[in-house]
Write a sequence for this structure.
């Protein structure tokens, strides 16, 4: 399958894809002789003039930018992460969750608790995190100003996520990406945060 992309400043648009659909073979016909049909995707007018609102839905922002110098695997993961739903849990599975969003970077904090836990944190709106296990199974640890709920499993001790608010009061979740299933940690940059001085 061939995909064509078009760059417009800092945004890349999906322009055309060569994916084909194949008609089912007739009785006694070899599959190699099947006729092919253009998929519905390719019947759409994907030119900038004819795309309309569909234009923005096909865009990849700077965080998913593709470069000729970027390894294929990295480019694939950048596009794949855009609106993915991930599952995660503590070690024993007593605390399990799913979270939706784009992992563009993770944060490593050097505050007194984060430096001990070694978490790599990804921040998402709280409503993007859904618990798959009873909320009471996730214990809570509070310290200092008591503004961040550090959620952990009382059985295995793993801290899969935390809860708090951003500077303007929006409820947020800090997901420990080390607890996500089948997630390539090397595919995201890690930002260092000086929480010790904050």
């Amino acid at each position: 399958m061939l995909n064509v992309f078009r760059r417009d400043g800092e945004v890349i648009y999906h322009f055309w894809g060569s994916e084909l659909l194949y008609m089912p073979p007739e009785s006694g016909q070899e599959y190699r002789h099947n006729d092919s049909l253009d998929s519905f995707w390719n019947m759409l007018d994907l030119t900038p003039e004819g795309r309309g609102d569909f234009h923005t839905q096909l865009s990849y922002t700077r965080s998913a930018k593709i470069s000729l110098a970027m390894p294929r695997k990295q480019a694939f993961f950048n596009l794949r992460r855009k609106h993915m739903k991930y599952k995660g849990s503590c070690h024993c599975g007593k605390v399990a969750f799913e979270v939706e969003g784009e992992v563009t970077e993770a944060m490593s904090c050097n505050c007194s608790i984060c430096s001990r836990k070694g978490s790599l944190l990804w921040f998402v709106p709280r409503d993007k995190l859904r618990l798959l296990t009873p909320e009471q199974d996730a214990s809570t640890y509070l310290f200092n100003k008591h503004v961040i709920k550090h959620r952990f499993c009382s059985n295995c001790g793993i801290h899969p996520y935390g809860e708090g608010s951003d500077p303007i009061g929006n409820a947020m979740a800090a997901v420990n990406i080390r607890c996500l299933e089948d997630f390539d940690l090397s595919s995201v940059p890690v930002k260092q945060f000086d929480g010790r001085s904050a």
Observations:
- Helices lie at 40-43, 48-51, 54-57, 72-80, 114-117.
- The chain has two domains: 3-60, 84-193.
- The first helix runs from residue 40 to 43.
- Residues 36-81 have pLDDT under 50 and may be disordered.
